[in-house]
Design goal:
With about 675 residues, this protein is mainly beta. It has four helices and 54 strands. The protein is elongated and about 125 Å long. Mean pLDDT is about 80; it is low at about 45-55, about 85, about 115-130, about 185-200 and about 220-230.
């Protein structure tokens, strides 16, 4: 941390400039090469980059008093020389006071120019490895000052609102080295402000100001998800690119209508200007309401039409937006602005999940689909009938190509296949001359498998990574006792329900014990009353639709009953009922369900002979006969069996546990009521 203000000056230009002040440290820099700060890099692995990349090394310098570079002095901040096969480093220069480059001063910031080798294992290019961060301060390039940002990031959470500024013959060059991205951002606070046009990341004003953008650099102000004025350009500003030099027109500039560079690198010229293409000495007029793309192409609004340059997309991405269940929209979305007169697209998808998928075109908006096989699909407007009549959204911030719906259950891993041999491309139309605009991953204008973005309440997914769990419905299970049974603890009730499916082991249930002491497990007992003519035990389970389950009911002294259940896909709930008597035909309903559409109970299955969980079939022979009657009579007269308990807690058992099955009504006694329950079911 350097607390004093640093002044870099050159006595060869101004001999009086080296005088020391109490609050500043003045450094005389007379060499043409300037003063160089090298930041160390870390080499990991072999020179061919074959080894794993180690953690990057990070250095910081804090200039609490700020800095001035003036009078032809030069400051270079560069990575130390060395073999950069697998190098990682970063330098943070933090300014708590202003940085000013003026009066011929020069600032050269070089990010680490990393070139990944073909067999290197690392996946990230450290391209923004020099970071200038401003805290309640600003960066100003003025009065002949020059600054070069090469693979660098300039940012500030609380940067002064109208800075950094290039003013009065100042010059800023923005470069991109080895696919590095130069970012000029005002930080999170201002980047998401509602009015970015009054708060650009770089503001150029004054006379003979120039900004040079080379090597396909990206310049934005921290709001890449929508249009924002990254650079605000005053009349007369020279914008230099590889395609030539454009001089901004001379019309007055307001906060809303000044020339600027948008997030796609387009130069927006509301008032026109003049352009000198590279290799030419002739100056061309650029009409008002024009847009110049990074490759030098100029688009002009048709005569009489309003020009909305932010509506023309220079790059687009393919995204997936979840709609419901396992269905996703396939969407082309502009990074900013509109996709102009979309024509067609072709993508090859990779499915690495456990489920199958079906792609359907957006037929409502006249998009046709061609399935080429092997995951390759073409999306085309179905002819050009009605182009521009407003009935089809061929120009919009996003184009819905169709939907992808996954079938089955399990992991979903769906993306675009980025094999270079496979085509991934989209085609729109230029605003002039009806030329085809190609968006491909080869020309870096098409984003596939990118980061997720949020627009409003919707999340746009670069890839689909999900798990589709089977949809379940609640199944209510009622065990009804027209021949009344007293409520008892589960150990004495001695009745169970089980649920099994060969296709669904996650929802299988083994032996749910019925009893008045099992409410915490979801088992309830309800006595006969006004709403329920018979006493019953109730429990619930979640089951899959369209899947076969077998429910089995068992109880001491009762007939074992099994029923197969397949709940339809449109069901929202289902119910199973069994009973302990021989039911009349009109009441033999076993399985019902309710559908979402109709909401009323529908019969799925009824008992053929009226008997299900029949009391009195003590030997479970499927016939109530003399053997069952003889068994009940043999133990006639036993009493208070429900109160005779041996042991305590979990070890407690009923002394007469072997005789509970003859107490058919579970009142603790084997008496005439139990004999009657056998006789009433005689021959069933």
């Amino acid at each position: 941390t350097i607390n004093k203000k640093i002044i870099l000056t050159n006595s060869a230009v101004d001999s009086a400039a080296v005088a020391q002040a109490d609050d500043a440290l003045t450094i005389d820099n007379t060499s043409d090469e300037g003063i160089t700060i090298e930041y160390k890099t870390t080499h990991s692995g072999t020179t061919d980059g074959a080894a794993e990349q180690s953690a990057y090394e990070e250095h910081s310098i804090t200039f609490s008093g700020g800095m001035e570079i003036q009078n032809g002095a030069k400051l270079n901040i560069v990575p130390a020389p060395g073999n950069y096969g697998c190098v990682t480093a970063r330098l943070n220069c933090i300014f708590n006071s202003d940085l000013v480059v003026k009066e011929g001063g020069k600032l050269d910031l070089q990010g680490f120019a990393f070139s990944q080798r073909a067999n290197a294992k690392q996946e990230t290019d450290f391209n923004q490895s020099t970071i200038f961060e401003f805290n309640d301060s600003s960066m100003s390039i003025e009065n002949g000052g020059e600054a070069v940002l090469d693979g660098t990031e300039v940012k500030g959470e609380n940067m002064t609102d109208d800075k950094p500024v290039i003013d009065n013959k100042g010059s800023l060059t923005v470069k991109k080295s080895n696919d590095g991205t130069v970012t000029l951002t005002k930080g999170a606070t201002s980047a998401v402000s509602t009015d970015n046009t009054t708060n650009p990341a770089v503001k150029c004003e004054g006379e003979n100001v120039s900004i040079t953008i080379t090597g396909g650099s990206t310049v934005h102000n921290g709001a890449p998800d929508r249009h924002a004025d990254a650079v605000d350009l005053a009349p007369g500003t020279k914008v230099k690119t590889e395609a030539g030099t454009t001089v901004i027109g001379e019309e007055p500039v307001g906060a809303k209508d000044g020339a600027y560079i948008d997030n796609n690198g387009n130069l927006i010229l509301p008032h026109g200007g003049k352009k000198t293409p590279t290799g030419s000495e002739e100056e061309e007029d650029i009409p008002p309401k024009s847009l110049e793309t990074p490759d030098g192409t100029v688009y002009t609004a048709p005569e009489g039409e309003e020009f909305a340059p932010e509506k023309i997309a220079s790059s687009i991405g393919l995204y997936f937006v979840k709609q419901s269940g396992s269905k996703y929209d396939i969407v082309l979305r502009a990074v900013s602005g509109d996709i102009n007169k979309f024509n067609s697209a072709q993508f090859t998808f990779a499915n690495a999940g456990d489920v199958d998928y079906v792609i359907t075109p957006n037929a409502e908006e006249n998009i046709a689909l061609i399935d080429n096989g092997n995951g390759s699909y073409e999306f085309n407007f179905n002819g050009k009938d009605g182009m521009g009549d407003g009935d089809r959204p061929d120009t919009a911030p996003e184009i819905k190509l169709g939907t992808v719906e996954f079938t089955g259950y399990g992991k979903v891993d769906f993306s675009v296949n980025e094999d270079p041999a496979l085509p991934n491309q989209a085609h729109a139309t230029t605003t002039n001359d009806s030329l085809v605009t190609d968006f491909t991953d080869e020309n870096d204008l098409l984003i596939v498998n990118g980061d997720n973005i949020t627009v409003g309440e919707d999340t746009y997914l670069g890839k689909i990574a999900d798990t589709i769990a089977p949809e379940t419905v609640p199944l209510t299970i009622d065990v009804i006792f027209p021949n009344t049974v007293d409520p008892q603890a589960a150990g004495y009730t001695n009745m169970t329900v089980s649920l099994h499916s060969a296709l669904d082991d996650k929802h299988n249930i083994d032996d749910i014990k019925l009893g008045s002491d099992k409410s915490e497990l979801g088992v309830t007992y309800e006595a006969a009353g006004a709403e329920n003519p018979y006493a019953k035990y109730t429990t619930e389970a979640d089951v899959l639709t369209d899947t076969r389950y077998t429910l089995t009911f068992k109880g001491g002294g009762y007939r074992t009953y099994s029923v197969d259940v397949v709940i339809p896909k449109d069901a929202v709930s289902a119910a199973v009922e069994v009973w302990n008597n021989a039911m009349d035909e009109a009441k033999r309903t076993v399985v019902t369900y309710k559908s979402e559409a109709e909401g009323e109970s529908k019969l799925l299955k009824s008992a053929t002979d009226g008997t299900t969980f029949l009391a009195g079939d003590i030997d479970d022979s499927k016939l109530v006969d003399i053997y069952d009657l003889s068994a009940a009579v043999a133990y006639f007269g036993k009493t208070d069996m429900d109160s005779k308990i041996t042991g305590e807690g979990a070890e407690a058992t009923y002394t007469d546990a072997d005789y509970i099955r003859y107490d058919l009504n579970r009142d603790g006694n084997i008496d005439s009521k139990d004999i009657a329950m056998v006789l009433v079911s005689w021959g069933k």
